[in-house]
Input
Amino acid sequence: MSIYFLIFSEFSKRISTALITIILLAIVASFVGLIYNIDQKNISELNSDFTINSSYYIDETDSIDLNHILSNVDFIASKLNNIPYALAQQSYWIKLSLHYPIDKTSVTASAQESFIKDSGNKQLILMAEHSMLDTFIVYQLNALTAPKKVFHKRPNSKNLSQNVYPYARLQLNQFGHSEYLIKVKNSGPPNIPLQLFTPQDFEQRVLLSQLIYGAFIGILIIMAIYNLVLFFADKDKVYLFYIGYLLSAFSVLSSLTGYGYFLFSNQVMQLLNKYLIFTDFLLIIFLLLFTLYFLRYDRLKHWAYKYSIIFTVIIGLFSLYSLSLDELTQTKLFFSLQPLFYIVALFLIFNRLKHDFLWARFYFLSWLPLLVGAIIQPMVLLNQLEYSFLTGNAFLFAIMIEVTFMAFALAERIRRNEQEKLTMVAYHQSNHLPRQTNLDHKISQLIEEGKQDFTVVVIKPEQFHRIELYIDEQIRVQFFQHLNLKLSSLFRFNDAVLNITEQFEKLCYLENSSLAIVIDNSLNEQDIALFVNSIQQAARDVFYIKDLKLPLSAHVGLAHFSAHDNVSTNMINNASIAANKAELTQNKWAYFTQKDNQSSPSSIQLAIDLQQAITAQGFELFHQPQIDLKTNKVCGSECLIRWQHPTLGHVSPDVFIPVAEDFGLIPSLTLWVVETALSQQSGLTQHTGMNHMVSINISGKDLIQANFIEDITKIINHSDIKAEKIIFELTESVSFAQNSLAIETIENLIGLGITISLDDFGTGYASMSQINQLPFQELKVDREFVEDVCSNNKRKVIAETAVKMAKGLGLEVVAEGINSSLDEETLRSFGCDIGQGYYYAKPMSYEDYLSWLNHLSNGQIPASLAGEYIPAPLKDTELYKPIKD
Output
């Protein structure tokens, strides 16, 4: 039954479309016939029995009077509408001779009978198709009497019809011949088409013209209101530009056709006529701006946008300049610049069409009639093309058609805008992969349907976070598109992996550089371990970054639906936590459990607690001594922050430092550490008499804080510790060599006297690059290359190379992670300056470190510790127990 309904529905739709198309075509055909009928009302074209002879004389100075014209001027024979009107300040004298049959039987046209019979009482209407005439005078000539003025039109007549359709009534005598002398002059477009009508046909001509002009005004008003509504709804300035174009076109055509006299006062029309050319300039300015913004050149930042704006400004300057010119010069200036405008506009349109801008096709179609009308109408106005109602109003008809197409174009643009907005919500603009919102929606849909047996799977590329700092956005996009393609091929025919978009896509991109899917376990016939293994196999590939072969692998985290945690974002977060946990497992995949949730407090809550701890000074600094390997004396200590959380207990710096950096708390935390370290250093000096160095870790994010130098300077000035006794250790885990502000901050710190040390050398990013580009004075070899250096040949080679390289560059070298006397002796043989590690002491609280120092002999540790830690002094037996990190 439903199939028949669909067939009937489709059939009805096609029939309705066909009927509407037929009706529209009938209306268009009727409209075309209407225009053709208007032109046929002209007597000179209608009836061959009516003879019209005309001749003209051009008064170039507009100074010759009637008597001189009749007695001393030779007229040039010409058809009535072939008079060579020109763009100049001159008047035209036209002789019009009408010959018509007076014998009724000799007249074949029924139209003639209405006025030939009793011809002395019959009339013809002479209409000048020009609403901006300065002079329109008609004299009736008679061989026996003086010329008789039968009509004189003055500008801005109180008779509105005379302003719109200037016309004179010509009385036909009973002799079959009437002769008239006509004087015309105008200050606007030069062509002055003169046409003859019967009174009845003239009335029809006027009514038909008013119908067309009324339709035009109505269309423009509707489109202007429509675009104004769109502007208030969308706040897009493109609609304002189109309104400006419509108003300019309305003003121009109000003057050219004269229908403005029906709408405005004579004073307003005088202003519109006076500034006609200026309004023409505004029309092309608004049209060019509309073209730029409609085709979105402003968003593309295309070079054509910049130069088009410059061209628009130039046109605007010309429009202002035109105000200082006379009307004739204004007109010549405008028509000389108009072709340049169309060249620029057409380039903008075709350039967008060339780049697959499909929805611009309606805009392109709207320009076709506009171009035709813009070419024909000026040619008619300049008397380069024969006048007809269609050609004389070509621009009006062009705008009506253009506005119709533009309605489609605007509707299509709005549809595309809405589609793009939806796409922006659903897809990442850089890699075009589905966003997390798609997966959120799918999970919510499953929950609403009462389904509970499903799993969210997060696929995280192994070690990607380490390399993404070195690749540009394009390579990053290619990376995830490549991975998405591999996994999509794997899931394509697996119904258990559910579609999350209408395009049947199954993977979404998460902001933490991961991909995610959702599995319907009831449809999954594959063991979950085999399923995850297939994902890892598909992800295991080689991705090329330029000439670098990067082996791909993946950590996979899974989170089952739980009635206690049935929010989509929570499920995705849980799967991400499991993916992070998978890094520590042998198979590189793991399930999320509630224990993971309890042991992994939310970052937001941890950030809140961090902020409170900073305010309440809830942290503690531990000191780990540093030993001069030449003298075996304590030469300084590294300050290490510790946090005993009120409910979580000891929280490792590896956990809370990244949170502090992510939530912008690191500047406050660093200043607390520096201030506390200098205060404790002052106490150590007072109680032990030892003037040691103090090493403080700072973050790369500290270096780009605007007030960092100012804050450090204040802290140093309020302490009694000289800057020369301070070492700032910069971790190599962040690359800041390309950040000019960071480099400037480092140089300012050195200027204060602070020593800058490169921490964790060998484990971070671009080690050689960092040393080469930044002004470090100390290098700290990471414990990874120091521990067991005496027996591990690879570590020995790396450590020796690092030490000798640093010494060759004039840097002081610190080795952290010394755990035995053999390691110490090995590093001493390499030329290492300072040692640090559990061999000497573990990190200690300030009080324990002070006690430890007081039990040294002259600040010197025993000559040989025989691989043991230094014995705990007095009762501080707990001093050297490992701190649980």
